[in-house]
Write a structure and sequence with these properties.
Blueprint lengths: L1 H41 L4 H16 L7 H14 L18 H38 L2 H4 L5
Helix pairs in contact: 1-2, 1-3
Length: 150
C-alpha cells in the first residue's frame, strides 16, 4: 500500500515537472528567434532573410518528432515581441510581415484560378473551332474547289 502511494507521488511529481522542463527550451527558442528576427530587421535586412534565420533557429531548437510550422513560429515571435514590449519596442512595426493579409492572398488565389479557367475555356473553344473547320474542309473535295471544272 505504501509502495503504491510512493509510485503515485512520483508520477504526480513527474506530471507536474515534465511540462515545465519540456516547455522551457521552446520559450527560450522563441525568445531568441524573436531576437534574431528583430535584430536583423533593425540592421536593415529584408523580411525574407530575417524570417529564414529566425525560423531555422526555432525549428532547430524545437527538436523532437514534430517540427514547428511557419505559422506557429511566426506566432511565437509575435507573442515574444508583445510579451516583452519594452525589450522589442523597435520591432513591433515588422510584425505585420510575419502575418500576411490572408484576404489578399485568397483574392489573389481566386484571381489566378479564374485566369486558369479562362485559359482552359479559350483552349477548349480553339479546339472546337479547329474541329469544326476540319469537318467543313472534309465536305469540300478538290473537284468542288476547282473553279474551271464544269
Amino acid at each position: 500500500m505504501r509502495r503504491l502511494k510512493q509510485k503515485k507521488l512520483i508520477l504526480i511529481t513527474l506530471g507536474i515537472v515534465s511540462p515545465l522542463i519540456l516547455t522551457a527550451p521552446k520559450i527560450n527558442a522563441s525568445t531568441f528567434g524573436a531576437e534574431i528576427f528583430c535584430a536583423m530587421r533593425d540592421a536593415g535586412n529584408d523580411h525574407e532573410s530575417s524570417w529564414d534565420a529566425a525560423y531555422t533557429y526555432i525549428k532547430k531548437q524545437k527538436g523532437g518528432l514534430f517540427k514547428v510550422s511557419p505559422k506557429n513560429a511566426a506566432a511565437q515571435i509575435t507573442e515574444t515581441v508583445i510579451r516583452e514590449r519594452e525589450k522589442f519596442s523597435y520591432c513591433i512595426e515588422y510584425l505585420d510581415n510575419l502575418h500576411p493579409n490572408r484576404k489578399l492572398i485568397r483574392d489573389l488565389e481566386k484571381e489566378e484560378k479564374r485566369k486558369e479557367k479562362e485559359q482552359k475555356d479559350r483552349e477548349k473553344k480553339r479546339k472546337e473551332l479547329e474541329k469544326a473547320l476540319d469537318e467543313t474542309n472534309e465536305e469540300f473535295t478538290d473537284e468542288t474547289l476547282d473553279r474551271y471544272s464544269y
